[in-house]
Amino acid sequence: MTVNRHRQQTPGQTSGPPAAAPIRAAVRSSSRKLGRALAWTAIGALILGPGAAQASAPRASTATARATANVIDKPVAAATRVVNLQETGYLHSVGEPGETIAERGHAIGTYNCSISVHMTIVSANSVTATFTVKPKGGSVTGRGSARFAQKGANGYFGGTIAITDGTGGYAHASGTDIGISGVINRETFALTVHVHGKIDL
Amino acid sequence: MIRRAFPLVALALSACTPVAARAAPMVTLETSFNPDRSGVRTTIEFGFQVHSTNRRRAPSPVTDLDLHLPAGLGLVTSTLGLANCTPAALLEQGVAGCPANARIGFGSAVVAVPAEPEPVLEEGSITALVGPPNSEHLEVLFYAEGHSPVSAQLVFPGQMLNDNGPLDNGPFSGRLNTAIPLIPTWPGGPDVAVTRMRSTIGPLGLTYYRRVGGKVVPFHPRGIAVPKHCPRGGFPFRADISFLDGARASATSTVPCPAS
């Protein structure tokens, strides 16, 4: 069941799986989708903070209970795949920024998809954020926190994000301590964020 | 940081009171938003005044000011401080040595020069600028300039620090911690005491410049966003002040919620 679901979620993946290992291929492609979603999520979480990690803790436990990447080689239906996420998002401000800055854009890397972020200025040096990424076949939501430093026209941030929810083929996506870093233009609020880490699909 | 201080005080002023532990002076704090309208970006106006317990004595010099800012208020979403000014450039050339886009406010200060029979008051101007980040903290440089009876140019370095934990829902989200250097009247003489300081932090009265198509175009920097939700009782501010003699004093002030 899981394998079939993954296959449905992963159509159009760029790198095709080996024909000799259909299960592995399915898992791999689904992982990529998840990774993409997570990446976007991470981007959103970049701006957010620690609360996200806490929120995702239960999900992480669930993920641990499930099989991990090692299971890929076994014909287990509920196999979970670990994806190394490397994503870069490019976002622009939507609406008038206030306490919260709404951003929307796209991400490229492990996954290519749309991303939206709501960043909240918690204090002079910290921000929190929630994010949603929408790869094909579902969506991933998360949140995180980051330290923030302002220098001239740019603000620089770095922190971690965690996945808190998913839909469709990413309903069971999980991940914590996904690293984020980036820069936001303080005049235009154009945001560039780099996400890196591992996610379970 | 003192650029230079000249002993221009007359000898008649030289019989000064010795520095000794005294009761903490009373401190008052005034704050306001300009403009003060819901949903409109603003300039923060703040000022504190130190009231000496003895009118014939200058209060102990202020050495540290912690101005706590209401939660949700910050410079991050403003375009204030698009450039940075180095303390060295400020000390060397004054405000002219720094980019216009580094200015974030201005005001005035009154200092009491210890003298007999009463302290002599001197007023100077203040310009607030954004300095280079100190660690990850935003650095605010207050450049003060006075001429008579003591001629001095000073830099008060301040830092925007977190007031609470990152997710703590306290009334304050940050504090501007400013170290106020001792200002000697003359070598070996007593220190001047800051008794009143007023300043703005915001776009009011400021003009920035950007290059557009090869031309330098002036523009008005974006102000500080005021939270749409006004806390019950208004937006709280608090000032914690430390004095050279070890005394400490606090004062609070609240900006009423704007009429909806």
What does this structure look like?
The complex is a heterodimer of chains A (201) and B (260). Chain A is 25% helix and 44% strand. Chain A has helices spanning 2-9, 22-47, 50-65, and strands at 82-93, 100-109, 113-123, 126-134, 138-151, 154-168, 178-185, 191-200. By secondary structure, chain A is an alpha+beta fold. By secondary structure, chain B is an all-beta fold. In chain B, strands 1, 2, 3, 4, 5, 6, 7, 8, 9, 10, 11, 14 and 15 form a 13-stranded antiparallel beta sheet that branches. A two-stranded antiparallel ribbon of chain B has the order 12-13.
Report the mean per-residue pLDDT of chain A as an integer: 71
What does the largest sheet of chain A look like? 8 strands, antiparallel, barrel
Counting helices, strands and paired strands, the structural category of chain B is mainly beta
Distance between the termini of chain B: 44 Å
The total strand number of chain A stands at 8
Strand content of chain B: over 45%
Shape, per Cα inertia axes of chain B? globular
What's the mean pLDDT score of chain B?
A: 85
User: In DSSP terms, counting alpha (H) and pi (I) runs of 4 or more, how many helices of chain A?
Assistant: 3
Strand content of chain A: 35-45%
Distance between the termini of chain A: 14 Å
Q: What structural class do you assign from the helix and strand content of chain A?
A: alpha+beta
Quaternary state, please?
heterodimer
Radius of gyration of chain B, in angstroms, nearest whole number: 19 Å
Kindly state the percentage of residues in helix of chain A.
10-25%
